[in-house]
Design brief:
Helices cover 79% and strands 0% of the residues. It has helices at residues 6-29, 33-74, 79-92, 96-112, 116-124, 133-149, 153-162, 164-171, 177-190, 194-211, 216-233, 244-265. The chain is elongated. The two termini are 48 Å apart.
Length: 271
Amino acid sequence: MAKMDKISKRLMIIGCAAAILAIIAAAVLKIKQQSLISVIAVIWAILVVIRMYLINGKNKDYSQMLEHLSKILTEENNPERYIEMCNSYIDKVDDDKFKAMLKVNSAAGYATLGRYEEAEEVLLDVDVSALAESHKAILYNDLAQYAFLTGRDEEGRKYVDDNRQLMLKYLRNKNMQAVFMITFAFDYYYKGNKSFAKQYSQNIIDLIEKSGSTTTNDMTILAKLKDLLVKIEKLSDDDNSEEYVDALISEDIDKRLNQETDEDEDVDIDE
């Protein structure tokens, strides 16, 4: 059962208290039952409107916070300030779900600096139950990825195995798949799936080199995946993946990636 947000809890208490007062008043004033029901219905309708107003206002504030954080990390390229502002917003908001998401985001700031141990500490402190499904997938993916990038391959494989179906779901999402490809490049290598491990590694290498990024994290990923490619080439050409469904999912992703690449080549974009 999903946790009730704080706004809903407070309005529920207010609504119950108002309903009780209305019942007491009705008994004292001898108001008809039908009129009492109408009064209570009006009270709840007002509270629903208030809830929508408050939540929409908070959502607007949260969107502005996320836009600000994105600008700091991408346009300003300032991961130190990004971490600082994430922590500032975490202290400022009182929404447990948003706090948890901000913690996941702040871990990305540490990772950008190559500070994987600190990033991992932040993720392990997150209340996973407060996260939306997509952010849970990101959290487990990042934990696996940091393990692979720091040479703790068995630990990385365990994170993937324990959360495979959830992570595969977002590997299929074209807006998120690049982050998951890094992790699955390692995972498919260890499962003996040469073609998919190679494809994912090369896709990410090409993406980083094309972007011109020189962050510590991207340089680490680039070096690790180039080393991984050497190991992948030594695998048998016969794919021995234990997860046939994984292979079908991966094949679908590769087809869409190739299609998108072909489409991009036909379009001229003015910088």
